[in-house]
User: Fold these one by one.
Assistant:
Number 1:
Amino acid sequence: MDPTPSSASPFDTVSGALGDYIPKGGATAVGGKRVSGAGGGAEGGERILGVVSLGRDLRISGANLDAAPFAGVSAAPGAAFADLLPPGDVPTVTKRLQRVLETREAHVARVQRLRRADGSELVVSMSILPAAPPQEGLTVSLIAMAKRLHLYASATAIGTSLDIGETAQSLAQSLLAWGDVAAVNLDYAVWTGEAVTEQAQERIRLRRAALVPDRAWPEGYLTPGDNLPLEASRLLAGAVMRDDVPQAVVIPDRAAIEQALDDPRLVRALVPGNRPVSVACIPLVVEGPEGTPGPIVLGVTEVWRRPECLFGDGELLDLQELVAKTARHVDLARQHQREHAQVLALQRRLLPRTGSDTIEVASVYEPTTPDSAGVGGDWVNSFPLPGDRTALVVGDVVGHGLGAAAAMGQLSMEARALLSAGLGPGEVLERLDETVTLLDDTDAGLAAGYSALGSTCCIAVYDPVDHRVLISNAGHLPPVLVHPDGSAETVAAQPHPALGAEFVVREPFEVHEFRAPPGSLLVLYTDGLVEDPAASIDDGIGRLTDVVREVHPWDDLQQAARRVVARLGPQEPLRDDVTLLLARMAGRRSRDTVTWRLPARDDTAARVRALAAPLLRRWHLGDQARGSALLVLSELVTNAVRFGTGPVTVRLVRAGSRLTCEVGDTGNGRPRLRRGDPLDDDGRGLYVVHKLTTRWGVRWTETGKAVWAELEG
């Protein structure tokens, strides 16, 4: 008669259930009982099942751990089940146990490690079942993972990350099924993303990438992040490259290991502890690129265990199979790391360096994590413009990786060049719109598998004399302006589609102007900072607005930027770049600037000289510099009257020893420098300006143009 659920022991219940689910066709011993099914491992008769009964207090009330794999796992009645676990796993497993107690819903097949009394660990598949009524508590089944099952599960799980460290850690965890300690050592070139082509032993340098289990190791023993001594690197590499063919090597006991190392320092660095041990070294190998003489060794793995448990030929084949599959993932992670580093280097170079005495800038850029789709196309920039102005630019190029990085670099540099050439924000966006369309043609874009259509950009130009900002936006999230009194608002310019959106009705890029008195804070950012899958983008912008209102005028701006990102940025791993630019407006002091608006008459140049001469003396310009400035002003005003239309605006700005002279008019003709013929009566004015100034140029305005020139006082 079959036992009822209430009378059957937990071991009988679990053994019977296991027999139902193991495929037919073989015989495997399970905890001393025979059940049908294969999958017991290479030896065929491997006993793999153990059971632990727990009370509601999660203490052990009974156990059957007679199967050979559980040797050394102590489950004494009354002990806490947590004592069987590695310390780092206790919180997670405890929550699982309590949840099954509360819900009575089984938690099945969790891969788990158990601690043996000697400090080694056993990998099992753990299922948590509610005890059969009327009993209370839990039944925990522990299946010592059969080697082939473990090999399949490990090979499937290891390739889920493109992070080199995570891949190495996953491999080391999997290797524990064959030993008591596992280590993974990788070549330097793997970490840096460089091509691994050299096979000469003197060029091989290894770094420990992973070590399990996590415990307190003796002083001198190599742990993750440590570089292996050069002799150790050569020895390991040479051991697995006999006859120039990578292969597994087994050293059967401690005496042979110490004889091979032949150096007490290397023994302390490589051998885990003072107990008797044996070791298997298996190389991480990939096929070399075309033209290389043979396979490439990316690193070496070590599996350590007690010498009485000899490594069998079948086990070595399993180890080599697992490591070979992992080697391909390591090489993919190396290539991804190389691309990630290249894109990140380009993006870092685009970040603002410093502000000026009229504006303070601070930026934070956090790239996506290496195992995501790749570094995105976010960028911010800040740079001075002629006439004492400053440009603030933020953009988000569609996509990730090198294609997005190339488009990002091109758009960023083009925006800077056009703004420096005097174009306004709206005109620059028009040119960028055309560039994105050109990038997407069949030769440059689609043939390369990348499209920049839909990229966004926002450009702001700050004038510290008038304390005003011009802004134009192409599909980007609106900036936030914090006023000196602490109030804040989003700066919503006329909405416009993203760059390259030819499928919509073409409209000019609107330019919005607003006041930014000294003490104002302008906030530019990308969507990675404010996006939250559980909330709308408007809610994210609202949270950003609330946070930046707390930035005080006396706060260190760079630290404030980091605080904002820390409070708003998503939890790792990042799946999109997080970019923030804070710009605190200081403005130019009124005593260092002057602006005159005069009618366009023949005597205007003389009047400007009369107004400027006493001012330049008060600004303590030297006689030579003052004479040059008056001559430059005279020439610029004369050209404005002669070739322009409407009134003339003259602006002088003193910034330290630099003097900026700017003359605006309502004409749209561009002054051009040319070398006049000795007999010409005109055409020499701009040549004189060119000779007397450090630089000069033309800036286009809403009403016409302004010609500016800079002199050193």
Number 2:
Amino acid sequence: MSLALGEVPDAAKQSVDQKLGTLDQQVANAYGQWHSQEQSSEETLGQLNQQRSETIRSIGQDLQKAGAEQPQDMQSMAQCQMMQDQAGQQGGGGQQAQGPAADDFVKIEDVQPNAQKEEQGNSFATECGTNDEQHNNSDNVVAAPGVVNGAHHIHDYVGNFDTDAQTSDQSLDASDTTCTNGDKSTYYWVVLRSLNGKEDQRGAVGNKSGPAEGGDNAGGDEAANSVNTNSLTHDSQGQDQGQDQGQGQPPAEDQGQDQGQDQGQDQGQGQPPAEDQGQDQGQDQGQDQGQDQGQGQPPAEDQGQDQGQDQGQDQGQDQGQDQGQDQGQGQDDQVGGGEGEEAKPGDGGSNDLNVGTILQPAEAEIQYAAGGDDKVTAMPQFLRMPTGDAKSFTNGDKNANASWSCEGFEDRQLKDKYPICPEGKKTLRTLAFQDCWDGKNLDSANHRDHVAFSKDNGGKCPDGFQAIPQLKFTLKYDIPQENLVNADTPFAVDSFPEQLHKPITDHADTIIDTGEDLQNKIVDCINNGKGCS
């Protein structure tokens, strides 16, 4: 849906962004219901397609009210179908349904050379660490600003300490950084996990103490707590984090009757309810932190009866602390929540089918270099860029930009397979960003059209675009050797549930905040034949 959008007027951007987040949440919830065998595939798809149709119709109305045209084929995008050949014949609960599969892996020695060894050209390296601070969350401020758990998977962050769903240009500039040269840019990528059967809830919504019982915590609970205060400023245990994301009709049901936490989604259009009508028989310990941004009718009632903590749709009469930000659109964007067995689908961790111990890179190289042109111009401050496509398994590979390899085998790059590396050789992920900018916009409606790759235009920037330094992450991992020997699927990236942890979905994002002086130094290093840091 986001890829189909053209220019979105400023007056509609916030609402459209939130509703794009709603579409992701709807798919994630549907996948969770199917996978847990709560519903048949037919029931799940019928409900999902109705929800998507209402949301997409509401996006079209937002565009029209702001004076923009709707894409002609918008409603056709409402319909989803099961990919039975990939989801497997086992039904919900099967390992095949979670992914990845054994045939997603290949020994690097069996891959024929397919890439030239990169020559060390003019470049600038910035040292920002490997996320020792354990700054993790399941937000994506570039692709889903303002949406808690907008990614439905966990990201590693280096650089700016501030980054989460609510990050703004101002908060970035006011924050500190892990980069040794004062670079306040935020650099982040989806985490890689060792598929060892353990749960590691670092960064999951509602989790403040790192991995769940049975998981590993490389930095210990104290380390996890020390940095997650940045990523969990807007979501902590017991907060009212439900979504009022609606577009017309209330949900068919509240997400069940939770013994612990009501996390239902209000998907209606209209006025928010005057009060939470759920029958709380325990303590409502939450803080209503939702952002009231919606446009729809409220649910007739909250049908969940909470005997623990109400984390659903308390929209303004919460007996706790209402910290919601009423942004005038009526849509509560908080999602997920809870810990352990009481956690609900949509927390970014195990309840979004992201399991296994998070692997910290052994090395994380962040480099700016020339792309297609030898001469580059400065990147504007607060430029937002994604690279790769988190949904490329279902979207297709048009925007996929995954590149996997092994130390010593850099001339063998994989896009849709994970490499099995020889013992003692690190697994490599390379994530290169666009090296052309339209000279005007810091972002675009689909978060892509304002930047481009020169490689897609014969090595030169498209007409109207100018060459900028090309940002590249090179992440190196030590995969546990026992995984490589004893497991058919030893590791995988986090993903949206329906993307099945496929290697082609690898992706990363950035917001540039180097400051003008440092940016000019980067340009000088590239344009004048220097290698510097």
